[in-house]
């Protein structure tokens, strides 16, 4: 055992040295765009990510999946083999705009029919911009089973990026939450009458590792089912060399939770958000919502004779899940040596002001981000409410709860199938008398497959307006994510958005561009984007169960310019007909 640990440690040291040698010797030839060809076998496997045995989805055996590591301009080809046996799959490349490759967006019901068991689907796209992105399942609530990973894109020749400080090493941190129930039970509960909420996750994971308190399952729990000594659930380790600076690329792939992330005794400098450079700011804790990525710089300059805690804790919902813990390990301390301290508690879960303040602190690094158009062509206001529709709990936008048609939108649009989704445009505003501070009494909500059609290349503002849920004195945080584009974040506010006074306060000088942004409780968030990517794109809350309950919208623009649907994307709904026709023809 001892020699095994020694070996592991030596390999770790060797890896560290190899990375540093690479770093020194890479300034040579001008890089040519490469093609990365991956073959991913997707299968169910039993994993003990938090010491509890759970059927998880693995990519080539790994949960979370492997990192995609590429250089700006490279082409990524992923052959996805669905070996789930009884379940479809679709993989979305979150933050990659898919310019010219709309059919590879990986969204079931929008750009493709999910891939059936035994089939292979090939995604092909260019990573056109350096930054930190992610991939994950976009089929039902399947993401929760662990089908996700990080995409890291570097500048050509791995040039030092225009960060305020150079950094020595570049590392990944994937944050997630973990349920012991599978998504089928959850989906059934969410669509039952009476409604059954999924509840808080059992564990929080850092780089796919957590620790569930097995004794909660009773003293006679089978060690085959839950076992704290299982080596695969030992805490994640972030090893640092004293004096060096680390860039951590942090991605949140949670199903539900919003987090505060911190490293005990160390500040971090936030430098990147969703692939754009941030005017650096220093913070002790980083708030991160599902679907967001950040890069932070951390200097390993504290007392190197001990280890420290890296922690995540739930914010914005009353926590019922123990904090997630990793070990921030100063080399050459043993990486499993527990820090001598209690893990820092993190901020109060309901300190909304401090979360809004951090949102407001995220500005684009001057000179590195395109400025927004000064005006917009259209303003769409989206009131976020909970409703019951036919006795079921749903989430709605302006009283419309959205669902996906059985024929993917993009195929329907390209083939002029006007009967597969609702052609009436959804509402662009809500009743101005609506009281956002009281329990929703909007009983007239409806379900729809309708879409927002935007003029190609026009500039569109989206005002997300939060409100009280169906529970008294409760308003939730919703991380909204847009496919196919980045948007400028023009502002956040509390209460009801006021068209007269709030527009004047927009940040038009240095707003950050992002693809995911929080809508804070009882607040509003204003976004602007240019509809310059032909196709149809999802805009949705990144909380799995909210998405499942209809918290989504679709933006179409210039879809006539998209190439014809590849056969591989068809096979469901009305698109089956097309395949048959082609075969007959
Ligand atoms: Cu990461 Cu449609 O989402
Ligand atoms: Cu939500």
Can you summarize this structure?
The protein is mainly beta. It has helices at about 1-25, 185-190, 350-360, 410-415, 545-550, 575-585; strands spanning about 35-45, 55-60, 70, 75-80, 90-95, 120-125, 130-135, 150-155, 170-180, 205, 235-240, 245-250, 260-265, 270-275, 275-285, 285-290, 295-300, 310-315, 325-330, 380-390, 390-395, 400, 445-450, 450-455, 460-465, 480, 485-495, 515, 515-520, 525-530, 535-540, 550-555.
Tell me about this structure.
- 11% of the residues lie in helices and 35% in strands.
- By secondary structure, it is mainly beta.
- The chain has 2 domains: 37-361, Immunoglobulin-like (Sandwich), CATH 2.60.40.420; 378-569, Immunoglobulin-like (Sandwich).
- A 6-stranded mixed β-sheet has the order 10-9-12-17-14-15, with no helix packed on it.
- β22 (400-402), α4 and β23 (446-448) form a beta-alpha-beta unit.
- The radius of gyration is 23 Å and the shape is globular.
- Mean pLDDT is 92; it is low at 1-29.
- The chain binds CU-O-CU linkage and copper (II) ion.
- Copper (II) ion binds at residues 478, 541, 543, 546, 551.
- Which strand order spans the largest sheet, edge to edge or round the barrel? 10-9-12-17-14-15
Would you identify the regions where 5 or more consecutive residues have pLDDT less than 50? 1-29
The major β-sheet equals: 6 strands, mixed
Output the structural class: mainly beta
Determine the number of helices (DSSP H or I, runs of at least 4 residues): 6
CATH class of the largest domain: Mainly Beta
- Number of separate structural domains: 2
Outline type: globular
CATH fold descriptor of the largest domain:
Immunoglobulin-like
Share of residues in helices: 10-25%
The overall strand count is 32
Cofactors, ions and other ligands in the entry: CU-O-CU linkage, copper (II) ion
Report the CATH superfamily of the largest domain: Cupredoxins -  blue copper proteins
What is the CATH-assigned architecture of the largest domain?
A: Sandwich
User: How large is the share of residues in beta strands?
Assistant: 25-35%
């Amino acid at each position: 055992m001892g020699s095994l640990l020694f070996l592991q440690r030596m390999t770790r040291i060797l890896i560290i040295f190899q990375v540093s040698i690479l770093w020194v010797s890479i300034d040579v030839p001008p890089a040519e765009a490469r093609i990365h060809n991956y073959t991913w076998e997707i299968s169910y496997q039993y994993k003990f990510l938090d010491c509890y045995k759970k059927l998880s989805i693995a990519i080539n055996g790994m949960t979370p999946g492997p990192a995609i590591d590429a250089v700006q301009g490279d082409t990524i080809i992923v052959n996805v083999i669905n070996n789930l046996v009884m379940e479809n799959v679709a993989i979305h490349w979150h933050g990659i705009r898919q310019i010219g490759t709309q059919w590879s967006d990986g969204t079931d019901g929008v750009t493709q029919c999910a891939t059936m068991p035994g089939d292979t689907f090939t995604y092909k796209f260019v990573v056109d911009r350096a930054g930190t992105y992610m991939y994950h399942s976009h089929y039902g609530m399947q993401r929760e089973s662990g089908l996700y990973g990080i995409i890291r894109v570097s500048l050509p020749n791995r040039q030092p990026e225009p960060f305020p400080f150079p950094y020595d090493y570049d590392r990944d941190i994937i944050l997630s939450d973990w349920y012991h129930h599978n998504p089928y039970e959850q989906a059934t509960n969410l669509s039952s009458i009476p409604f059954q909420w999924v509840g808080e996750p059992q564990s929080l994971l850092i780089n796919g590792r957590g620790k569930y308190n097995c004794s909660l399952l009773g003293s006679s729990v089978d060690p085959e089912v839950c076992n704290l000594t299982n080596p695969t659930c030992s805490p994640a380790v972030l090893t640092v060399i004293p004096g060096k600076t680390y860039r951590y690329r942090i991605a949140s792939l949670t199903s539900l939770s919003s987090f505060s992330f911190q490293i005990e005794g160390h500040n971090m400098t936030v430098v990147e958000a969703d692939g754009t450079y941030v005017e650096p700011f220093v913070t002790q804790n980083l708030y991160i919502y599902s679907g967001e990525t950040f890069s932070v710089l951390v200097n390993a300059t504290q007392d190197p004779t001990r280890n420290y805690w890296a922690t995540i804790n739930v914010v914005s919902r009353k926590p019922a899940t123990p904090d997630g813990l990793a070990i921030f390990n100063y080399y050459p301390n043993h990486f499993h040596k527990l820090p001598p301290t209690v893990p820092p508690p993190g901020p109060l879960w309901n300190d909304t002001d401090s979360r809004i303040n951090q949102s407001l602190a995220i500005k684009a690094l001057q000179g590195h981000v395109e400025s927004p158009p000064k005006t917009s062509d259209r303003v769409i206001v989206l009131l976020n409410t909970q409703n019951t529709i036919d006795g079921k709990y749903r989430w709605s936008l302006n009283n419309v709860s959205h669902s996906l048609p059985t024929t993917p939108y993009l195929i329907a649009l390209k083939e002029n199938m006007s009967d597969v989704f609702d052609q009436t445009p959804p509402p662009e505003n809500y009743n101005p008398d609506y009281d956002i501070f009281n329990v929703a009494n909007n009983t007239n909500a409806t379900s729809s497959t309708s879409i927002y059609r935007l003029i190609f290349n026009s500039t569109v503002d989206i005002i997300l307006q939060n409100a009280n849920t169906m529970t008294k004195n409760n308003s939730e945080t919703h991380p909204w994510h847009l496919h196919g584009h980045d948007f400028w974040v023009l502002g956040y506010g509390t209460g009801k958005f006021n068209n007269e006074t709030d527009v004047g306060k927009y940040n038009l000088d240095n707003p950050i561009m992002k693809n995911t942004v929080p809508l804070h409780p009882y607040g509003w968030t204003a976004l602007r984007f240019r509809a310059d990517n032909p196709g149809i794109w999802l805009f949705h809350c990144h909380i799995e169960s909210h998405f499942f309950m209809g918290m989504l919208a679709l933006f179409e623009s210039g879809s006539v310019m998209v190439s014809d649907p590849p056969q591989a994307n068809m096979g469901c709904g009305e698109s089956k007909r097309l395949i048959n026709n082609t075969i007959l023809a």
